[in-house]
Amino acid sequence: MLRTTLLSTVILGGLISLGTITAAHADITPDLSRDSAKVGDTITLTGTDCDPANTVHVFLGDSRVKVRPAADGTWKASMYVPKMKPGVADVLAVCATGTSESHYPTVQLKVEAGEEPDGGDPWIKVGGTSKASTPGSKHSVEGGMFPAGKRIEIYLAIANSDDPGTRVATTKADSDGDFSVSFTIPKHFDRGTYVVWAQGPDDKRHGMIELKVKDAPTQKPDRPKPPKTGN
């Protein structure tokens, strides 16, 4: 029998999803390609027993990658070691559906000093993703490896849709190709699963970070104070 709890799971500062957490993969430790690596090095994590219909999310510091398992349930995810303090870091993998998460045992990596790679595909990460994501809430977006000095547009779109969504912020990449900007979820947005993505001068969608939006809490009206009575 699987042990389950209903929780909103925060992993290394980033929300994965809101749903049922199971212990189905608690005894299946993923295989890390190396025991130690420098910042900027590429590591590979492999595992088994994730349903092909699900998605595997792998987390290391501020980096996150997601991959689809093969037909036999095996999966392989590669990522570079992000900028972080030297020491022992946790690498976490989660086999997830839209409503449930199954966590693999954490694997430890010894991180040594190094430099992040200068080249690669543009990337983004979204901050402030929590169970408090509601219409009107504010979120930060950071990114890197975009063309220096060029305009970047941030969009919020319904997940699994061809609709590009609503442009919620614009900014420019700095001389290193990095950017940081914030946006507010429009108040007219309905609850559901959305994706945040960035568009640079290449007109491609970069990022596709999932963001779940819930209904805003209903405010209770203030109770009138009883009138004062004299002696």
From TrEMBL:
<feature type="signal peptide">
    <location>
        <begin position="1"/>
        <end position="26"/>
    </location>
</feature>
<feature type="compositionally biased region" description="Basic and acidic residues">
    <location>
        <begin position="212"/>
        <end position="225"/>
    </location>
</feature>
<feature type="region of interest" description="Disordered">
    <location>
        <begin position="212"/>
        <end position="231"/>
    </location>
</feature>
<keyword id="KW-0732">Signal</keyword>
<protein>
    <recommendedName>
        <fullName>Bacterial Ig domain-containing protein</fullName>
    </recommendedName>
</protein>
